[in-house]
Amino acid sequence: MHLETLACIGLIFRFPVALKFGYTDPLITQLRSNSWGNVISNEERGSSAFHNIVVGIESAIEKHLECYADLVKACQSDVRPLDVKRIHALNGRVPIPIVT
Which of 26, 37, 44, 48 is deepest in the core (most CB within 10 A)? Predict the structure, then answer.
């Protein structure tokens, strides 16, 4: 619900993940903040809400640190094309998937 609100007021962009990443489901989206979203998040860095978000993300990453390390390594590979099957499998094991 919060992501939809942020998208509606224009602070983030939500769009389908590019086909080049090997995801064919148009319901899988990626997010990017726009310049106003960046300004607001920078201004709110000292707030308790921002702190709670950071703690939640850090906790999720720490619990899956080894898998994230493998995922980042796979995404940064010099070998082309990337091993998207492996990247998809790793993304399926983490709470916050990433794409290159």
Answer: 37
Which residues are bridge partners to 31 per DSSP? 14
Question: What is the spatial distance between Cα 29 and Cα 14, in angstroms, rounded to a whole number?
Answer: 6
54-87 confidence digits (pLDDT tens): 888 899 999 999 999 999 999 888 988 888 899 9
Contact yes or no for 31/17 (Cβ under 8 A):
no
pTM: 0.65
Number of domains comprising the chain: 2
The domain of 58 spans 50-100
41 neighbors 50 (Cβ within 8 angstroms): yes
